[in-house]
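REQUEST
  id: r-88c1
  op: predict_structure
  target: NADH:flavin oxidoreductase/NADH oxidase, putative
  payload:
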Amino acid sequence: MPSTSNQRVHTHLFRPCRVGQPTMKNRMVMSPLTRCRADDNHVPTPIMTDYYSSRASMGMIISEALMVQPNYSGFAYEPGLYSAEQVKAWRTITDAVHSRGGLMAAQLYHAGRATTPANLTSKGLVPMGPSVVGISPKADVCIAQWSRDGKAQAYPQRIHAMTPTEIGAVVKAFTCAARNALAAGFDAVEIHAGGGYLLDSFLRDAANKRTDEYGGSMENRSRFLLEVVDAVAAAIQPDRVGVRLTPLDTGNGEEDDKPQELTTYVCQQLDARSIAFVDIVRGDTRTNVTGKTEGWVRRSFSGVVLASHGYTSMDEAEQAIADGTVDAVVFGVPAISNPDLVWRVLTHTPLNRADPSTFFTRGSEGYIDYPICEPHSFSNPRVMANTTAYSEGDSSRHSSCKRLTPMKMPAKERPHFAVSQPLLLGATTMKNRLVMGPLPRQRCDAQQCPTAMMEAYYARRASYGLIISEPCEVQPSYHTYVQGAAISTKAQVLAWRRITDAVHKEGGLMYCQLHHGGRTTLLCNTGNGQDRRAMGPTTQGIPANYRCPAVFADDGKHRPYYSEVAKLSPEALKWIVKLYVAAAKNAIVAGFDGVEIHAGGGYLIDQFLRKCSNTRDDAYGGSPAGRCRLLEKLSTPCLLPLDDGASVCAYPQRTLQGDEGHRSRGDGGDCCDAHGGAQDCLHYCGERQ
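RESPONSE
  id: r-88c1
  status: 200
  body:
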């Protein structure tokens, strides 16, 4: 069992890691651990919700093995994922895990020849595999807790050799289970191709004696697995798919004459399919011998590598990630007995000892009764800011992490657990509660396109729970800040895409702040020397005592804003709404996770909200509802393409650019209540990649 006895800061274990679509907030993964707590119909039970949700602090939870086909049970009471009732029960569990900021993958498996007649509840069924060769009693036996008749027994010595038609049916079963996994709220799936179960028995030559296209050569023996991977990836996207391999494990009588060559070939094929991760068991769980199989995977697979078995200490796990040998470490028995394993590693708290006698029993003992030390308010820290310093790097094989000296704090200083907790934000999860605010830095080029230095700037700040970009102008050629950012042209969108890709690569989230300066625009900032007038809710400009700083102006002169501007007509306001909608769509194409509508700071939307600048007597002025109308009209369509990724930024009590509201509590509250639902929408500059 990994130890936490010393006081080393495990910097690398608490770096984020992007695994396909989701991002793990740390690199401690809960292993798929069959616990036999489902009911007679393989439906998850209520205690399983407590069990999994209490472990949500792990970077990712991989579920116990889930049956993809009825009747073929290897553990008597393991759960399944082939019925509506099972999907509904799993949804309760994944919702509970997500409510605590966790990620969860479903492990999909077929027991194959590793089952007993007592577990085949439909008449006429027999265990099946690649050949008629069953599991020798010298190799493995079924313990009493894995059989419905409660008797320890040998597995059948002779089984049914699957036909190509039956193989195709199992491929369809895996595909259906993968779709069910997404319906049940899982973030990803792991295809179990190890452990001596069905897919593994096709891979390895000890069990596979076939002479057709599914036997003989490594290529043929790998065919079944790759057909499953192809079908599942087509159903749910490759970046939600992982595969577990156990090339040295002799469980259920499996062996192969050339395990390294087989693993290398399989991983090369998986790499060509761009799946998210490979989960490798490093040795033989029966003999407790550890190999170096993670190196076989690393050299032939460019995605995320998870590894388990044989890590004797947290220091060893930390070093494996620091060296780039693996991207994350999978914990089995320690995760059984320590629901708060992450907390214990962070605080160097001794681990609970596991009770193996309760691993496969059906009650709550040894399942949801292990002592928990973490505070109730603690869940899923990305990192403890008071004990760890770190730098982010690519999670691929080329990653590197600069060694940093841990930050020191006074002995009695209270740890900042609250800011380290995750927060659900629409359709995404912030890994902590520290947000980088929208900060104009004026580093764009003359066409308002983000520059290379901005990519480095934002990527280095990906450790924040959320980055909100600097204000991005929605109307071409109207600059509030010289060399400020915009998101209205294809070149700007492509430049932002490079930045968001860099942030996501480091495990970050990023929103785009949509901005229109309104009456704060100077003639020298409107571009191309054209005579464009500043605009606002009325002809009233900005009082003379509010001047534009020289650094904001294209001509570098400190000057007052315009005292008179163009009043926006209702028709012009419809056009303004279209500009915001186009910018929101462009933000999604550019890879942003959402948008923030800038409704503060004395800029256009704020100018409509405040009485001092909005003296209109039409539908866009007067009452708080009227002054909020523009924000309401642009908020609803802007939300359509965003899938729960939108926010509104307002400063109801600040006086900027000459804007000062009356009754700011009512003004601010009324304007932030205008959100609509999410729908699909065509993009302005192109399809999202």
